[in-house]
Design goal:
24 strands, alpha+beta, seven-stranded antiparallel sheet, glutamine amidotransferase, six-stranded antiparallel sheet
Length: 478
């Protein structure tokens, strides 16, 4: 069976969501299901849950959304004390069932299961080392390499914590991991903490998840983040912490801007609040005379509210999003393609006609969707269309677990802001500055990875990987 792939997205795509829980006596598979359900925005290609009851491992994973992969009967079969769950968007390894997670390795101490968010930049080297030691690698993901590296260290005589730390020190790149073993549950982040991982508590038990929204859905309380370079080992006796690498925090700033759910919390506040501040600062940096501010739903809504509040311009919903549009492999006719994005976004002429519009979005990657939105607004009678973006221009690709185009496909890498404005046919276009983006965090502005905006990669990228995406000598002047 073949199908035509959907057109390339006009947003960066997240890598994965991970979840883990140790709770003897509880329905851990069902708790994990709901945790993954809350993390569905982080990946929609495959989902999986592995449950351990001592040495006994039961697992189910398949292609599709969490609600498509699991049902009540399947969850009832996943009985145990510890569960590890994963929902995936592929960045390393193709979108096939063999690459679905969690991934497993069998060791002298029993099975180890792993769920991974992020990307290794030395995956090719690690794979060669494992193959040289006659490991059988069935998938094409760096996640499988990590779990086999752990298994190898354990089989060489190390315990679970010692063996995992030994394996982690062989890995370079971005990784937030949830790891299940017969002895307990582990969670860890790379030394830069590029991808998030939080700890929660539920009835005295511990929960690990990519975001706090996955804690809220099951009634767990946020305790703290897993720190960069930290490994936590959770057993029935409690939680132990091991700092295996010197922390140099560089959390992905795009988690704050777009990827994480707006109700997830970072630095003691919801990301909705942070995104409103982005809009407020954007209004200060790039004011314009207009009649109404509208968002590109849903990701542009908080920033549009902030922009409207700071500018004094009326906020209204001018585009209605169909929230029930998922991936479809039914190819539209040419006439339907020319109709553009109306399958997902439909303009409200009552709000738009005769008005000077400020439309706010969180980012522009290729510019294809933005151009269609602008055209739809003009077709609905907009007198002027001014676009404001609540992040800086995306000029560099990500190598740490976000699926972005090669540099020549990033519109801001090949065109100036004025050229982009002409391309998407707006009356004016302005982006938030890097300084404004970091100011809105109200934290140490050195604690974030901003490589997609600045080209400053905190983890060195091997030349052979850089060549696959960094195809320009320099970015376009703005």
């Amino acid at each position: 069976m073949t199908y035509a792939a959907p057109s390339a997205p006009d947003k960066p795509e997240e890598a994965c969501g991970v979840f883990g829980i140790l709770a003897p006596g509880e329905a851990v598979a069902k708790l994990t299901y709901f945790g993954l359900f809350a993390l569905q925005h982080r990946g929609q290609e495959s989902a999986g849950i592995a449950v351990l009851d001592g040495d006994r491992l039961t697992m189910h994973k398949d292609m599709g959304l969490v609600s498509q992969v699991f049902d009540e009967a399947l969850l009832n079969e996943l009985q145990g004390q510890l569960a590890v769950g994963h929902t995936r968007y592929s960045t390393t390894g193709s979108s096939r069932k063999v690459n679905a997670q969690p991934v497993v390795s069998r060791t002298r101490l029993g099975p180890v299961v792993l769920a991974h968010n992020g990307n290794l930049v030395n995956a090719a080297q690690l794979r060669e080392e494992l193959l040289a030691r006659e490991h059988t690698l069935l998938a094409t993901t760096d996640s499988e390499e990590i779990v086999h590296a752990i298994g190898e260290a354990v089989d060489d005589g190390k315990g679970w914590v010692e063996g995992t730390v030994h394996a982690l020190k062989r890995c370079r790149g971005a990784f937030s991991l949830v790891i299940g073993t017969p002895a307990g549950l582990m969670g860890t982040r790379d030394a830069n903490g590029v991808r998030p991982l939080v700890i929660g508590t539920l009835k005295g038990r511990y929960v690990l998840a990519s975001e706090t929204c996955a804690l809220s859905i099951i009634g767990a309380k946020y305790l703290r983040d897993v720190e960069p370079g930290e490994l936590v080992f959770i057993t029935e006796s409690g939680l132990e912490s091991y700092h295996w690498a010197k922390p140099e925090p560089r959390m992905c700033i795009f988690e704050m801007i777009y990827f994480a759910r707006p109700d997830s919390r970072v630095n003691a506040e919801s990301l909705y609040t942070y995104r409103e501040r982005l809009g407020e600062i954007l209004a200060q940096e790039a004011p314009v005379q207009a009649d109404v501010v509208i968002p590109v739903p849903d990701s542009g809504t908080p920033a549009a509210i902030g922009y409207a509040r700071a500018s004094g311009i009326l906020f209204q919903q001018g585009l209605i999003k169909n929230h029930y549009v998922g991936r479809t492999f039914i190819q539209p006719t040419q006439t339907m393609r020319e109709a553009g994005i109306k399958m997902k976004l439909n303009p409200l002429p009552d709000v738009i006609e005769g008005k000077r519009i400020v439309i706010v979005d969180d980012s522009i990657v290729r510019g294809t969707t933005s151009r269609k939105i602008v055209q739809a607004l003009r077709d609905s009678g907009a007198r002027e269309v001014h676009m404001r973006i609540s992040s800086p221009p995306v000029t560099h690709p990500c190598f740490y677990g976000i699926d972005t185009d090669s540099q020549d496909q990033l519109i801001a890498a090949t065109k100036s802001v004025d050229e982009i404005a002409r391309h998407i046919e707006v009356d004016s276009l302005a982006y938030l500055s890097v300084e404004g983006m970091l100011k809105a965090t109200r934290t140490d502005d050195q604690g974030f990875c901003t490589a997609c905006f600045t080209g400053d990669y905190p983890i060195p990228i091997p030349d052979e990987i850089r060549r696959t995406k960094l195809v320009l000598e320099k970015t376009a002047a703005s």
